[in-house]
């Protein structure tokens, strides 16, 4: 089973690429943000707790997020692979993911696609997206800026360990959706053929 991480700031295009790539290769798309929003819509306990953090533009605590993700992963033991969109966002989340993959002999983190992009571009993208999706955390400029700050502070450096050096592939997120997906597809094909 292969495990592919799409990593980068909010609004960098991870979700769009995750959708394209998961369809193309028949992989499971796991977006923690989407799962949280689904819980919020259904007004579950988890949804109520998560909304407190999400509406502030800060990370949901690790315990809550890792528990939720571990439950999701256990639904997909038979899958060819998983694309993670918006997870992990802390070092603890990396450890937790490695732990569950080891525990159930599901393979390892194969590739981390690291999207980089200028800050002013993502702010514009998020505000534009908010108008269409009506996501509260995308429409309010203060929340948008806090999410970007949260990314810089809590998330951006989590792969800073020589262990991941050979797994990280950097990509310029200001390129077109198509150009980026072709690039990612090539790398995944190489991975599938070498396995
Ligand atoms: P996203 O849809 O990935 O932009 O996530 C929306 C919001 O959900 C984030 O701003 C966080 O509050 C929360 N969230 C999503 N994924 C995670 C995660 N891996 N760890 C903590 N909070 C998360």
Can you walk me through this structure?
The structure is a single chain. With 195 residues, this protein is an alpha/beta fold. It has one domain: P-loop containing nucleotide triphosphate hydrolases (Rossmann fold). Helix content is 56%, strand content 14%. It has a five-stranded parallel beta sheet with strand order 2-3-1-4-5. The termini are close together. 32% of the residues are buried. The model has no long low-confidence stretch (mean pLDDT 96). Adenosine monophosphate binds next to helix 2 and helix 3.
Element-by-element helix/strand order: EHEHHHEHEHHHEH
Mean pLDDT: 96
CATH topology: the name is Rossmann fold
Helix content range: 55-70%
Q: Please give the domain count.
A: 1
Shape: globular
The number of distinct β-strands equals 5
Strand order of the largest sheet: 2-3-1-4-5
Note the beta-strand portion: 5-15%
Biggest sheet record: 5 strands, parallel
| Total of DSSP H or I helical runs spanning 4+ residues | 9
Structural class: alpha/beta
The distinct bound ligands, ions and cofactors come out as:
adenosine monophosphate
Please state the CA-atom Rg, rounded to the nearest Å.
16 Å
CATH superfamily: P-loop containing nucleotide triphosphate hydrolases
Distance between the termini: 10 Å
CATH architecture: 3-Layer(aba) Sandwich
Q: Low-confidence parts lasting 5 or more residues at pLDDT below 50?
A: none
Q: What is the name of the CATH class?
A: Alpha Beta
